[in-house]
Amino acid sequence: MSAATAFSPTRRLSVAPMMDWTDRDCRYLLRLISRETLLYTEMVTTGALIHGDRERFLAHDQLEYPLALQLGGSEPEELALCAKMGEDAGYDEININVGCPSDRVQSGRFGACLMAEPELVAEGVAAMQARVTIPVTVKTRLGIDDFDSYQFLTDFIDKVSAAGCEIFILHARNAWLKGLSPKENRDVPPLNYERVYQIKRDYPHLHIDINGGIQTLEGVGQHLQHVDGVMMGRAVYHNPYLLAEADDIVFNKAKPVISRHEVIEQMLPYIEQRMQQGRPLKSITRHLLGLFQGQPGARRWRRHLSENAHLPGAGIQTLKEALSLVG
Description:
By secondary structure, the chain is α/β, with parallel strands linked by helices. About 40% of the residues lie in helices and about 10% in strands. It has helices at about 25-35, 45-50, 55-60, 75-90, 105, 120-130, 150-160, 180-185, 195-200, 215-225, 235-240, 245-250, 260-275, 280-285, 300-310, 315-325; strands at about 10-15, 40, 45, 65-70, 95-100, 135-140, 165-170, 205-210, 230.
């Protein structure tokens, strides 16, 4: 088991699972900046774990805890099997994706389209909880297409919570599965924070996290007056240093704030190790581009990495050169 088995969900800040973004290299970076923020993997499908390279999909560094595995799937026994794999690999939480609106996800019968099948989601949750001792959580939208009433959402929560789910992460938008791309679905459906707040008022016994459009730690604090947790996404990816004061402000755990230069210096041994394992430098440095956002030399930092990290022979020296360009 992980070093964070005592992790409590009473007050949470987390970084959303984001495809192609929240891989293990990204998560290592974020963990250096915040010790307390809960991190999520990219969504991993049950099919990939059962039939693919299980070790690669579940691989992570011990430093990353607390860490949650997000699964995409709908077949209860497959979800249960994969949840057990995740627990055995050391993850602190298993999350089921009931929010992704992409066509590929819909065709696989998981993601946001599962909001229309709450009984199936409930069966999946029950099967997973029967196999693991760590929390099983659900990340979902407020509704889908024309099914966007408060009653639709409460019916979903009633059925899934009755199966034993106690933690819901609510992306405060509907998903429009017809007519919008996944990218458009992140911005076009209007945010409705008040509906998430109402869910918390109506279900005080459940742990409710809010997600969607949250840009600052000040905003996190405002939401925590109404709900139990906040999940941030793209704002953190594009400006990872945003989390530098999260442990103090959100969790009341004061610690010396690590500088941006110190973050890179602490990343160097990890990057060397990953490159020895065959990871290209550019696959790691892409996550570092926003670290100096708003700082003198930030553009030079981004440019140097973008123009040099992909070149043959690029390595730690490339990073050191980029670091010398920022104040």
